[in-house]
Amino acid sequence: MSLEQLEAGSRVFNPGRTAAWLAKQVELAVGSVDLSISQYRILGLLDQGSAMSSSLAEQLAVRPPSVTAVIDGLVTRGLVERTHSEDDRRRISLRLTAEGQSVLEAADRAAAERLEHIAGMLGSTRSSGRAMDNLSLWHQALVAHRAARERR
Amino acid sequence: MSLEQLEAGSRVFNPGRTAAWLAKQVELAVGSVDLSISQYRILGLLDQGSAMSSSLAEQLAVRPPSVTAVIDGLVTRGLVERTHSEDDRRRISLRLTAEGQSVLEAADRAAAERLEHIAGMLGSTRSSGRAMDNLSLWHQALVAHRAARERR
DNA sequence: TATTGTTATACTCTATAACTATA
DNA sequence: TATAGTTATAGAGTATAACAATA
């Protein structure tokens, strides 16, 4: 690490801070379709298949009442459908509606466009491409991480 | 893109969703030193030098009252110091205390460790290294993006 | 009794509108 | 008058504790 980097906090690359700022950009992007980042995460999970409320809480790393609160808003907006499970009526099955699917896709596009615009600030298309590819690497890492947690 | 990827939403790489989940991991990490991600962003900005409240709001992309609220908590905890500017007494200068500096460093370490652990779930040390190293590209892109916005 | 999810309640972060202090 | 920041207030997301329904 260079002397200049050691002198000023602003110039030291820091992975946590970088991820925190990327998230803010995503928040701004999905806000354009009136989604919070929490709502966006939940819709993304439901896009991978319907889910029980309990399993959502675990995957999202939040407590059950938080899931209830966010889902309430999504159900009111008609983006998610709540149905009691037939075999165990304590359980609640959640799934995306067509409208939810469509809003999620719009959010995905808005976020991707914003991130691509930011990556475009790097001088070369090669660097920009590497930045986007890097996110795909993190996607794989997060999937592997979740799988490892589920096995435990 | 393969057929398998087209079939299931879960397998399609999506930059926005990835960034949203990375942020959740950072949130969990900085929570270990009792910081929210908003507090973490603010401490990170103040680490780059003292700042006026108004300029923080702009950089954070939030409204002035939100800055007041978050700073209130940080001042109460002794992590940030508020002083009236001498030349224009309407303005408020904010800077990190030694304790704030130390908590921020602990948060940085916790976030970096968590991200490194997740990157470690990729098969090879080479991939893990690339994931971490290329996050610095995003750091550069975000710095360039902010600079471009300031010029406008 | 144990489990699933919700309700009650409180705290934080966000916003808009109205206000205070200063210029 | 205009500007910098705060106060008042409200909505969303988070939590813990207590509850209802079901197993």
Description:
2 copies of one chain form a homodimer. Chain A has 152 residues and is mostly helical. Chain A has a single domain (3-121), classed as Orthogonal Bundle (Arc Repressor Mutant, subunit A). The first copy, chain A, contains 7 helices and 3 strands. Chain A has helices spanning 3-7, 15-31, 37-47, 53-60, 64-76, 98-119, 125-151; strands at 51-52, 80-84, 92-96. Chain A has a 3-stranded antiparallel beta sheet with strand order 1-3-2. Chain A is globular and about 55 Å long. The model of chain A is unreliable at 1-10 (pLDDT under 50). Chains A and B meet through helix 2, helix 3, helix 6 and helix 7 of A and helix 2, helix 3, helix 6 and helix 7 of B. Chain A binds a DNA duplex (23 and 23 nucleotides) through helix 5.
